[in-house]
Design brief:
Blueprint (H helix, E strand, L loop, with lengths): L1 E6 L2 H18 L4 E4 L6 H14 L7 E4 L1 E3 L10 H8 L11 E2 L9 H14 L5 E4 L21 E4 L2 H8 L10 E4 L2 H5 L3 E6 L5 H9 L17 E6 L9 H9 L2 E2 L2 E2 L4
Parallel strand pairs: 1-10, 2-3, 2-6, 3-5, 6-9, 9-10
Antiparallel strand pairs: 4-8, 7-8, 11-12
Helix pairs in contact: 1-2
This protein binds fructose -6-phosphate.
The site of fructose -6-phosphate (F6R) has 15 residues, from loops.
Length: about 260
């Protein structure tokens, strides 16, 4: 199933994505949830925090995994994705510290072995049930830049010039690192369900390539086409270049009533 939900606004998309994650946690209290950083999922995380406050949505058994992290930032840098996850999500929820599995940007010598350990950790924990994803303007998924093997695993990756330029706008003046560590496309595809969010007109072209274009390592996000269970939540602008919108709207109206999802993940 590749389900494409098109919402009027990013706020509505964040709310509906939030209710999908919340419903899944209620069905599976020990959910293994993969997190993405960046601007796109902030609204979703805010919704989860609100649901925790208002409805006591319980995160005590939820286990969290992160998708990627920068290598080589100052240890106290605010730009670590680890900091982002604490700020936007973890610090506001009842997450057990032992359930936090956030990638660190390891020192040069330790990278290969820490990537292998991370893969092993995910496997030992039983795999990721639901992986939240954004999409880069160049089609990257995690930090799997164009040209990444569709079967890649967690590894060190050189950031592209365009990714560095986009990140530079939100990096508080600190130079953007050359390298990051990311789950591979093969790793991401092993998650049982992918929840990919994209909002705004600047994502329209790449969303169309990922969803309706040919499968290609040059658009790493097109690898979602190989996955049996994908939910995309797009606002009207990000969905703007899709040709099959009519069908997506019909399809999603079958599984949603208001903010309630009728979907077995
Ligand atoms: C973040 C990540 C990236 C972002 C992508 C979109 O953990 O892996 O792939 O999801 O760069 O970023 P935003 O949401 O800032 O447009």
């Amino acid at each position: 199933m590749m389900l494409v939900l098109i919402t009027e606004t990013s706020e509505e998309g964040s709310r509906k994505a939030g209710s999908l994650v919340a419903q899944t946690i209620m069905q599976t209290p020990a959910l293994r949830l993969g997190l993405a950083a960046g601007n796109t999922p902030i609204g979703l995380y805010r919704n989860l925090v609100d649901l925790h406050r208002t409805t006591h949505l319980d995160f005590s058994r939820v286990r969290l995994f992160s998708l990627d992290e920068f290598i080589g930032l100052r240890s106290d840098s605010p730009n670590h994705y680890r900091v982002f996850y604490h700020q936007h999500l973890i610090d506001h929820l009842n997450i057990e510290p032992a359930h936090l599995h956030l990638l660190s940007g390891p020192a040069e010598q330790g990278i290969a072995s820490s990537c292998v350990s991370y893969e092993r950790l995910i496997q030992n924990q039983g795999g990721i049930d639901l992986q939240i994803l954004g999409i880069g303007r160049n089609g990257h998924l995690g930090f799997n830049e164009p040209g990444s093997s569709l079967n890649s695993r967690t590894r060190r990756i050189l950031l592209s010039a365009s990714t560095k330029q986009n990140l530079g706008r939100v990096f508080y003046g600190e130079p953007v690192p050359e390298w990051a560590v990311t789950m591979g496309l093969g790793t991401i595809r092993e998650a049982r369900t992918l929840l990919l969010l994209a909002f705004g007109a600047h994502k329209a072209e790449v969303v169309a390539k990922a969803v309706e274009g040919p499968l290609s390592a040059f658009t790493p996000a097109s690898s979602i086409q190989l996955h049996p269970s994908v939910v995309l939540v797009l606002d009207r602008e990000a969905a703007g270049s899709l040709t099959n919108q009519e069908y997506y709207r019909q399809q999603s109206s079958q599984v949603m009533k208001g903010d309630q999802w009728f979907l077995e993940l």
